[in-house]
Sequence to fold (335 residues):
Amino acid sequence: MSYLGAKILVTGADGFIGSHLTEALVSAGADITALAQYNSFDSHGWLDDLPEPTRRKINLVRGDIRDAAFVSRLVHGHDIVFHLAALIAIPYSYLAAQSYVETNVLGTLNMLEAARQHGTERLVCTSTSEVYGTAVKMPIDESHPLQGQSPYSASKIAADMMAEAFARSFGVPVVILRPFNTFGPRQSERAIIATIIRQALDPSCPAIMVGDATTVRDLTFVTDTAAAFMAAGIAQGIEYGQAYNAGSQRAIMIGDLIDVILELTSSRKPILQDEKRLRPTNSEVRALLADCTRFVRETGWSPQVTLREGLEQTVNWWRGRLSAKQVRLQRDFIT
Fold:
């Protein structure tokens, strides 16, 4: 199967992974509708940073997945729906757990109901490796116990179960894709790699502030994660209502990751622990390492970008972003 001419909806297209997926789908010749969360700033998030020729090929829509009537109208007429819209910042979930239920659980319910109502050919729902909590066994396959170690992960577990229920109860053709930690250009500084790189490169930062550097993560470059979504959208052998891991199947301790970033940025800044960046003790996920055997077997997907190559691309993106910021500040100062 091909995406050429297919009518595709991407929710959360304004975000980090969503913008990369949208860009890849445009390159594949799909007819794209991209949903950005409604805001009063006339912004479509990272979609505004895409090259103009790419943006012209996208039907940009603003709205809110918590609105069931809006979601129903939006889903109608699309062949494949990629549902990435979610609240994802783990620290904020400790402060506003209800908003995570409303967006991640009820929002996903609205997507599932709309797909059921309109006979959508396939709905790909985004899960997260956080649903596994601290690994009981590694590498982690899809049979690993689910553990709600934060309100965020609990909301994503609930969304996953709702997707499974709709597949079993109503035959909704829904695939649950479970990406492990993704990194790359356009990622916010809530993520470890983005915050380390920005602090390493930013002359206004005298030191690099981090949280727990002893945790272990499986890190996948964003173009590989976008490719995993595209594989999940059209693979013929995939099983509806089931979760599929997508990760690099390699793990690194955050302390070692910091050393690589310092080398790539030529930074000699001291590394300091910031207590505000630490999760509650029983909430911290100590280690994640993906077993993607099922997904690779059923889709043929595999990561193409090594950790170092991805870090080099991300460092270069941040260099350009900080350089552009300095130019703007100088211009504003002169005028």
Notes: Residues 7-183+220-248+287-305 form a domain with the Rossmann fold fold (CATH 3.40.50.720).
